[in-house]
Protein 1
Amino acid sequence: MTKYIGILTAGGDSPGLNAAIRGVGKAAVGHYGMHLIGFRDGFRGLMENRTAPLEGGQLSGILTLGGTILGTSRDKPHKMSVGGKMRDMTDAIVSNYHDHRLDCLVCLGGGGTQKNALRLKEAGLNVVTLPKTIDNDVAMTDITFGFDTALGIATEAVDRLHSTAHSHHRIIVVEIMGHRAGWLALGAGIAGGADVILVPEIPYDVDSVATAIKRRSRGGKPFSIVAVAEGAISVQEHQARLAALESKKGRKVKDIEVEEPEIVYADRTIKLAQQLEQMTGLEARVTILGHLQRGGAPSAADRILSTRLGTATADLINEGRYGVMVAARGESTEAVLLEDVAGKVKTVPVDHPWVESARRVGTNFGD
Ligand code: F6P
């Protein structure tokens, strides 16, 4: 029996989304003879029944395109703003799924999307997800698509900041995305030779950072690059959060992930630069890379990864295996139960080989 598949992209956009849509679509339609329909702007498009045809040549010429041809949004099925009110729209989504006679819904997204997909699985839909995000923080997969491209962009930025920091004898604090995980800052910091790398997983002491910068200065290098993850926090902030959590009866420290307030972009980074300027006597400047890191064409590695994950998705649907995320595992792929992915965040282990290696070359982590 011919299978009918719906596909959507949700959460922040990421290089490689179009390559993944193409991978799913060409394998599903071209290889297996299935039917494919797109939904616009994530779960909202599915709820509002806004579709995009994908069988009339739309899959051609998109491998190298950044963004997503389907559009995306951060809407959640169970909490969607409709008519100015937050409403649970799961029933509308389930009903549209059945109206289209879908056999499976493919959701391309990061951590939030995995949770939303699990909710739809629990509501009775067949779903398969792919791990997408520049943050590389989705659990149970070696890597997410988008990460390699963003890593390249952030690394190039650190390279460029080096020459201007060197020329002006300045500290340049560069804020790198990554949400609550430090993969992007860590990777770009190592690849770009940052002198200091601050990640959320290792709360920093500003004295330690200032001391490292002053030591470099005394050694004849009166400039430094500080690569700071947007989610990095100081030791004091970390302790305050733990204390606040522990004071709440019945709550456990491990709940910190869900309890943390929203990241205030840039504020903390600007404050850090001001502190370092005062403490070292060197001029400091701030560069916020922001959404630059998500834009543009995917790298070759991301095009390959997205294509691999996309075609593996079509294989699974052909086998009738649903309720899973298609994870990257070495050179291969693996179907992982959504229950094992949803609600988990893959942060940087503090003793990760990248961290150890960076320490060996003299990088300061603010600890
Ligand atoms: O998850 C990807 C990401 O780019 C994070 O690194 C960042 O914190 C967030 O999205 C930014 O979200 P928005 O695009 O909604 O501003």
Note: The chain has two domains: 4-145+298-340, 149-294.
Protein 2
Amino acid sequence: MIDLNLSEEQRALQKLARDFAQKEIAPVALQYDKEPAFPGEIIKKAHAAGLMNLSCPKEYGGQGQGLVNAALITEELNVGCVAIAGMIGINSLACGPILIGGSDEQKRRFLIPLNDAGKTASFGLTEREAGSDAGSLKTVARSAGDHYVLRGQKCFITNASHADLYSIFATLDPSKRTKAITAFVVPRGSPGLSVGKVEDKMGQRSLNVAEVNLDDVEVPRENRLGEEGEGFKIAMKTLDEGRVNIASCAVGLSRAAFQAALEYAKERVQFGKPIGTFQALNFMLADMAVAVDAARLLTWYAGSMADQERRYSREAAQAKFFATDVAVRVTTDAVQIYGGYGYTKDYAVEKYMRDAKLMQIYEGTNQVNRIVAGGVLMGG
Ligand code: COS
């Protein structure tokens, strides 16, 4: 038997996150969209409430949750606002390389102070010429005795302006592509590390995304994660988890848009009756509901594969591309149901639609995620 009923503990976690999102996130979501800002106070409160660092083990200052429980919490936070929830959740991605590639000593050294203080980190893989083709990155790490010297530039790095430490991927030899990529932890304040242009984005306006410049940054050897050349696999494994996380963000956003559209369709009267009773819109609402439910089930399935410690690259990629495609469709339909009002900034659905688009692009475009899923199907 497959039991999809949540345990009491899971329902309590869900309620904690739902109450937090309703009280601390949703009321300020439109304001943070209009005037993008770092939601530092909200992050502090989320940390105090136990809603950060969800999948990081307790011994390293995290919540020690599996990916299914993390998905439950993440969905609720994202109903409030995807951008603010993204800043609360960034450590799951940013600290993934330390959890996957780091030694026990490194996990204690980097994660405990970061997590105990409620600070945030960044994941530095992408470069101008290495987006979908992450294996072609050009940031170089030169070995120099007891340290490495990193030189290059990262772009589209979430939380770059505020991170306390950065997981940075660099190559020891660009001609060896994925085989020479190596992962490092670079603390904020390291001489030569600076934050460049901050992106002015269509949606997810308060999700800080910026360049990171590495201008001959000396990184001690003890900050290397795993062996030389293991960095690409560390990055890919981190992204497996990240993609389940993005899928649950997309489920939260889709749910918010669906709920808004449903309520509006019940209230808005045209031709003498609520517009939701017209079959055209009624079918649209039914399709939205089933899409949200299907996205959630795929997300939980991918999370449960991870929690059973089975290889879950395909399930994570599938959940990511399905759920984020659903988010774009459901938020667009929500605007349609609101009609002209939905296209104005007076209603949240306009923001939902803009916020959704980025989800099809980050943590691997949905085309790349189809490559990942298709590759596994073909025995890769
Ligand atoms: N777990 C463990 N190992 C993995 C893995 C995973 N999820 N994915 C790939 N690998 C391994 C492969 O098995 C291969 O190992 P060997 O060298 O031992 O054979 C190695 O990594 C290289 O993999 P592959 O040949 O598939 O690499 P490609 O250069 O073809 O790239 C894609 C594969 C396109 C899937 C990868 O570049 C990618 O995910 N790109 C998108 C990056 C992304 O999501 N960026 C967003 C950053 S955060 S906003």
Note: The longest strand covers residues 147-158.
Protein 3
Amino acid sequence: MNKLLRTPVIAGNWKMNKNCEETKNLIEEITPLVKKANCKIVLCVPYTDLLPALSVAANTNIKIGAQNCHFEDHGAFTGEISAKMLSSMGVEYVVIGHSERRMYFSETDITVNKKIKAAIKEKLNVILCVGESLEQREQNITFEVISTQLKIAFKDIINEDLEKIIVAYEPIWAIGTGKTATSEQAEEVCYFIREIIKQLYDKKGADSMSILYGGSMNAKNAKELLLQNNIDGGLIGGASLKSADFSEIVKEADA
Ligand code: PEP
């Protein structure tokens, strides 16, 4: 399938940044800069900012996402937020399996799989993050790591639900470090991800899946990364907190 048939996705991951007021201000700044964009634009904000974000982004081309969810609908899980709660607010996207969640909050491939299933049940769009550590890359086990992450994440996910899932390849060594994967490194793994999806499902599912790159993507390096055949957009951390930088990346995705 021609890459041009997949709509590019530019998603911001604000991480634990911005209060409600700052959220409104930043989305108001971003809105006019991206209003003519052809790509899909998603801002994944902290839970506490979801309501103001949804209200400011209403009637714009910006979709709002959360950065995590719990896999149970409700119950004794102090401090957690369920996929069901997110969908009831009008949230449309959720990031699942970000490396910071895996690293600092002990998320495993198995909990990632449960969260994806919960999110799909609630009709949320999932941005599933996979990626290897520097050690794993140096040990030449990148492909094994990614393949295991994907096979467990997609366990019991049926073909019809694939359209709700976007995969983001985020090498851990490139996140927040200023060290971007080269376009060749990123393309090689994104191509591999598409091959695994083809093995697990079929060519159609693999061809139509959006695969993003994330890891220190910015206004300067976005162009080359986004030109790659298997890179359909970006998951942007640091650069999504600045309206000018984020909108420049959106422009590159549209180019
Ligand atoms: C991320 O948090 O998903 C990310 C890619 O961060 P950064 O762009 O800051 O490396």
Note: The longest helix spans residues 183-200.
